[in-house]
Records
---
Amino acid sequence: MEFIQHDAPLSGSIKDIDLNDFISNQAKTNIIKFVDNNLVVLIKNQFINEYKLKEFSNFFGELDPPGPNPYGINFLPEHPEINVISNVKNSKGIPIGNLGDGEATWHADMTYLKKPPKYGILYAVEVPKNQGNTHFANMYKAYDNLPNNLKKIIDDKIIIHDSSHNSAGMLRKGFEKVSRPDLTPGAHHPAVITNPHTNKKRLFLGRRPNAYILGLRINESEKLLNDIWHYATTDEVTWTQNWEVGDLLIWKNLYVLHKRDAFDPNSRRIMHRTQIKGNDNLN
Ligand SMILES: [Fe+2]
């Protein structure tokens, strides 16, 4: 097994590993540490079934079932812990997965919950070439890049994280459209989180649409959020994953933002997705 840090604001790769083989406890510990240090890690050329995907995901903790999708169904009834991200429809015209083919805007997964998942894992089953890239942004670096006056203003603020829409902008089943950001349904989280071990601060933004900073007028909240978001996703803090079949990607969901580019609606893209339960302290 070889660990390679990328020359990028975040991310690394693990080579010489086959997830169908036995993985020792020491190797598991090393993998988790490498993911924790680099925030996003790519393992290429993995050809694993659903059981192996769940087994690997379990290295990082207990599996967290997917959030509600707009269709209100389990995409893989035999593996309800696995979400399917796909634009493909079955012979009856029913989607076999979530999020379609459009852009998914910058977000962290399910931060509208009090205890959002702490790791996300995405496995490429079928992908179109050089399309539907996924971008990741390092929230430590985003915080570091804020001008001092913005750091001071945002440090003690609380943000509402919208639960009504998914990252493709589709209304989730059972929700209504948000009429005013201060009425947004969803968890309240600190805008800045300090790592208790290193004292390093990072931004925790969730997603921009319908976000609201508690205690501010709507127009003040909108302006401050726009100012902060400007620094959160610059090229200086991002890395891009260009998918190939067999790619497996693990990320620390509460330390990064991610987004997906749109891709050709006539192409097929199927990804299998798991996530790991988080805890109260968002670390
Ligand atoms: Fe996502």
---
Amino acid sequence: MSAQAFPGSVAQLRLAPMQPEDLDAVLSIENTVYPHPWTPGNFKDALQSGYQAWVAREEVGNVLGYFLLMVVVDEGHLLNISVRLDLHGRGFGRALLARVVSMARELGLASILLEVRPSNARAITLYGHAGFMSIGRRKAYYPADENVREDAIVMRLSL
Ligand SMILES: CC(C)(COP(=O)(O)OP(=O)(O)OC[C@H]1O[C@@H](n2cnc3c(N)ncnc32)[C@H](O)[C@@H]1OP(=O)(O)O)[C@@H](O)C(=O)NCCC(=O)NCCS
């Protein structure tokens, strides 16, 4: 796949397939935006599994965010969507999610599923405004502090 293969509705984001050489930049974002980040091995496994893994870059070339979408038959599972910490709150998350949705439509998917921590108010707002509906909870899904686990809210968007 080439860069810009999915023009989508938010043309100003420059997307390219995530490559192994992007992992240093991706992990540096991952480690600053999540208390319990994915490991290098998680990303390598995801790339080897052929998931839709894309990075968005600033004009100067630095990675500003990324997402990973696992496709199973006609359903996409949004495994990770992240924006660099210094750029939070400027609409990049919304733009990136719009690209996920347009990509899923181009792939002919019927729906996108995701999990989100109930404590992640910004992400829940982002997904809600994009039309995702809460469809349930997974108990003790996420690691949290001091051996406590946090539930996940499961959200779904019909395409
Ligand atoms: C979640 C994330 C991707 C959103 O990206 P972002 O660029 O910061 O988000 P945006 O600026 O596009 O704002 C998204 C929405 O959240 C709203 N928002 C901003 N700050 C908020 C807050 N503190 N509480 C609730 N909503 C908030 C915005 O108003 C916006 O709503 P809008 O679509 O009506 O404008 C980003 O914050 C991030 O990388 N967080 C860490 C990783 C993460 O949690 N990923 C999601 C895992 S499920």
